[in-house]
Amino acid sequence: MRVRSLLSIASAALIAASPAASATKPVYGAWGYDATAMDSAVKPGDDFFDYVNGAWAKRTDIAADRTFVGIDSVLNDQIERDVRAIVEDMARDPAAGGKLGQQIGDLYASWMDEAQVEQLGTAPLEPWLDKIAAARTRGELVDLFASPGFDSPVGLFIIPDLKNPAKYAVYAGQSGLGMPNRDYYLLKGEKYDAYRKAYRDYIIELERQAGISDAEGRADRIIALETEIAKIHWTPEESRDVEKIYNPMTRAQLKAFAPQLEWDRALARLGLPKVGKVVVAQKSAVAAEAKLFASVPLQTWKDWTAVHFISSNAQFLPKAFDEAKFNFYSKTLRDVPAQRARWKRGVDMVNGALGEGVGQIYVQRHYPPESDRQMRELIGNVLAALKEKIANSSWMDAPTKARALEKLATFDPRIGHPSKYIDYSSLELNRGDLFGNALRAQDFQWKLQLSRFPKPVDRSLWDMLPQTNNAYYDPTQNQITFPAAILQPPYFDPNADAASNYGSIGATIGHEIGHGFDDQGRKFDAHGKLTDWWTATAAKLYTTRAETLVKQYDAYEPIPGVHIKGQLTLGENLGDLGGLEVAYSAYRRYVADHGEPPVIDGLTGDQRFFIAYGYSWERKDREGALRAQLLTNEHSPAKYRVNGVVRNIDAWYKAFDVKPGDKLYLPPEQRVHIWN
Hints:
Elements: H1 9-17, H2 48-59, E1 68-70, H3 71-92, H4 98-112, H5 114-120, H6 126-134, H7 138-145, E2 154-161, E3 164-174, H8 183-186, H9 190-209, H10 215-232, H11 236-239, E4 247-250, H12 251-257, H13 263-269, E5 277-280, H14 283-295, H15 298-312, H16 319-334, H17 342-366, H18 370-391, H19 398-409, E6 412-416, H20 434-452, E7 472-474, E8 479-483, H21 498-514, H22 536-554, H23 570-594, H24 605-615, E9 619-621, H25 623-632, H26 638-646, H27 650-656
Parallel strand pairs: 3-5, 6-8
Antiparallel strand pairs: 1-9, 2-3, 4-5, 7-8
């Protein structure tokens, strides 16, 4: 997945089909790139990211309410404005949009009515806290853990079965922390001590606002509990190993494995009384958390449940709760100085609760059908390039090539929007009940999962909204999905230069397709089943390349003392590198058909291709947000998604005459090639 996804390569197909289109000026610069972003004082071989984006970075500040600024924020702002127009239209005239329009309008209006929220105070919260207080046994607390709206030390969720992807399975995994992950509890140093102190202050503030006594003592016991949970949690690197997290158990095995969690009771409460199998993800952590549930005093678990419930819903409560949550999670952890405008957060809330309903209207207003044709042509170009690379691979043997080509042939691209949308008609929403709306929306989402569970997996379902600026690959369905919102400038411009489009959206398409062959995606076959289809020889050669890439990224240190986790980010780094390799090959196929392109702005076509790739990652992050990404996220920071990739590609060296002595230079034998 790219943290911003597809776009401009689509224009390359349009250019190929209609040469006259180039007579119209692209939105960005002379050929799809704003040349004022470049810092020509930087040698491309020393820091390609700064060469492409350095002048922009020097003059551009991050908005006070954002964690970052860059190419993505430009498009995100436009999408946000487009969705705002939809929800405000529905709020002004609900009848105009029928039942769905009324739901969108009522939900948004309930969010925007701050006076009503303040007037109600903590009254909406109190019945939920009363439920927690009324729990007299651990079994009654399990009932709450298994109810929508409440957190649980072990989370239960429904996704396709990794070994039988045509059917759904129930999964159980580690949970229970209030800070982003285990590192925030366990790492040493002043920065992390400050985070832990701020978290304690946050818990105390929530409890005091809610009228809970002995706030300091309860906070200390909650943090002590969460610290013990953190110690037993798997690392993010361990949790992304799909083979390790697939541990199916029968009911009898579950009861013997972790009897403290009262599985029969929990599953019945969740609406899954007849489920015969649960797949346990982080096996040792789930067993250890079950023991903690039995050994830690019931009152501490009740306090933990209350604080997590308040925190999860603080934004739906009076301003004091909302600000406390912002001050900790955004200002303290991510260095964001100002809260986002309320309308922006209202757009987020409506997208979260009624996303496909909003998306249906968004597509009608902002997605031209012609984009489907262009994108399918572009994806076809990249697939053809990858097919050629697999066939000519120097490290894949014949049996593995045959299976890889079979998988490639079954890729299912979905573009723009779902073929059918979620029906939200049963969701009750009330303009005067923001808190209730939020909880009912959570309950609706769980019931939606339950309604699908007994049936075969519906391959038409989407895991992103049409109005999302992103893309993804689903290994269990072998699908790549590109939402409508990303198919517009600055990523999708039918009038941009072909080199720009292939370097930008082409690399993104290659990235998503490449996830089918990354270190985890490669473990799924053409039908989405988790199975080993590689010969031992091919797997060994692939793993050697992957391990070299891990070492490269382990060495990068974006914040003093905080390195990229090469193993955690491996899948995305492989996607970036393989995606750019394939996109470049696709671009050269285009050039072979249309002739070597002219020099523009003093730049050759190959130079523009790589500059477009670097420009597509133009971004600046706040240090706190960057630290959180390094500790928890599978994606490397933007700068290293550029510099860490191009230094492994031979064509980049030739395009910019990169020589030994340049800071990014790698000897040929040290470069990692995914597809050669």
